[in-house]
Write a structure and sequence with these properties.
This protein is of the alpha+beta class and 424 residues long. The protein has 18 helices and nine strands. The strands form two sheets. The protein has a seven-stranded mixed sheet with strand order 1-2-7-6-5-8-9, sandwiched between helices. A two-stranded antiparallel ribbon has the order 3-4. The chain starts with a helix and ends in a 12-residue tail after the last helix.
């Protein structure tokens, strides 16, 4: 058939002469099994290359050791899951950390995960990293088959941006190979999300490499290669068969997985000990946002207050005042919210200050029945709102405040004495 002759000419069929000639040329170069420690394994779908490295749990990686994660409370670790309510507690031994190296960033059916690394604690003494490598495109069925079998015992995934990148690519590759997958159904600890919540106002970038340098104190060896270079190194390997440059790719993948472990540990440590953030006010504010997103309003309020103690730019102070006032309102802590209204006025947040005063007036009118304090808050709100630039919405707000003041004045006005009372 014409299509078969064309494929044979291109060397894309396993036993074609062109492919055999290409493999002969490749033998002039070092194959992957001579460059990276590992072995070729046989699967029902054919052979693939697997590298395995073992680390003791006392091995340091930056400021932490790998085994530090094993000592974090399971309920704290579970809060790194997305969404957190998937499980109330998470044993670190049930997590498999996963990272892929791909032929591109676009995703879709044209992007291959030529290297998939997984890391896990098989016991309390060891951390294992296994890397599944596709020596050529026709080894993808074997690579994916071996990977799925290796993931079967675990109850949760750990990744860095895996929900948006690694998992969709693997799901696509598995679907094309007609292999079953439970990846998207597993509880997922995507560490990019909590990292952004804590450090996006502190660091220029929340990429894993930035977090390694600024937070984890990780320094990679000179054998590492930058992420942008990895696809081209693999394509060059496919053309020549020379695997030596891929040693840096395997090292890069390994270091990403080790950093995920220590990043998870560091986030758990901050959740347990927020006072140990290094006292950067925006890091405290990031932790406050974290607790706020989990409904822990009291702890979030405490951390926002601590952050406001430090010197801040006017923009940062205004942002934190705004979030704290909204949080106090949610927590029905009206008296504490009142303490912020002058600070909000000074920061130019007049409308939010007016909202606080209106909430306080409602609270005293209907809850405490302290009409004098309700009137005082209403009059302060009217004074503050009068300085705003006129708009239809603000005009309606002022009308509502005026009506509230009139109602409160009527309630406070002494009731007229009945005429019968004058004859007593």
């Amino acid at each position: 058939m014409d299509w078969r002759r064309r494929l044979e000419t291109l060397g894309m069929l396993r036993n074609s002469p062109a492919r055999s000639a290409g493999l002969t040329r490749r033998r002039l170069y070092r194959p992957i099994e001579e460059v990276v420690p590992g072995q070729i394994i046989e699967t029902p779908a054919g052979p693939c290359f697997v590298s395995e490295q073992r680390f003791t749990v006392d091995r340091p990686h930056g400021r932490w050791t790998l085994g530090d994660l094993l000592h974090r409370p399971p309920e704290i670790l579970a809060r790194l899951l997305d969404p957190p309510e998937q499980t109330p507690a998470l044993d670190p031994r049930q997590i498999v950390f996963l990272d892929t190296e791909t032929t591109g960033l676009a995703g879709g059916t044209g992007t291959y995960a030529f290297l998939v690394g997984i890391g896990f604690f098989p016991d309390d003494q060891t951390f294992i990293i296994r890397q599944y490598f596709m020596r050529d495109y026709d080894e993808e069925p074997a690579q994916m088959s071996a990977l799925i079998e290796a993931l079967e015992p675990f109850g949760a995934l750990g990744s860095f941006n895996g929900r948006s990148f690694d998992i969709p690519i693997l799901e696509t590759r598995l679907a094309l190979q007609r292999l079953p997958s439970r990846l998207s159904r597993l509880p997922h600890m995507d560490l990019l999300r909590p990292a952004r919540r804590v450090w996006r106002r502190v660091l220029m970038s929340c990429a894993l490499s930035s977090l390694e340098q600024a937070v984890l104190a990780v320094r990679r060896a000179g054998t590492d290669v930058p992420s942008w270079m990895i696809p081209s190194l693999y394509f060059e390997y496919l053309q020549t068969g020379e695997a030596t440059p891929l040693a840096g790719v395997f090292y890069h993948n390994q270091q990403d997985i080790l950093s995920m472990v220590t990043l998870a540990n560091h986030l758990c440590y901050l959740l347990e000990n927020p006072a140990e953030t290094g006292r950067h006010p925006m890091e405290l504010a990031g932790l406050a946002r974290w607790h706020e997103s989990h409904g822990e309003l009291d702890r979030a309020i405490t951390l926002y207050r601590e952050a406001l103690i430090y010197p801040l730019s006017p923009e940062e102070r205004t942002r934190l005042l705004r979030r704290l006032s909204a949080l106090l309102k949610r927590a029905h802590r009206h008296e504490e919210a009142l303490e912020l209204w002058q600070a909000l006025m000074d920061a130019g947040e007049v409308e939010q200050a007016v909202e606080i005063l209106v909430d306080l007036a409602k609270y005293h009118e209907w809850q405490t029945r302290d009409l004098a304090r309700a009137l005082e808050a209403t009059e302060q709100a009217i004074t503050a709102a009068a300085g705003l630039r006129p708009t239809p919405a603000r005009a309606l707000m002022l009308e509502g405040l005026e009506r509230r003041r009139e109602r409160l004045l009527r309630k406070l006005r002494p009731a007229p004495r009945r005429q019968d009372d004058n004859h007593l």
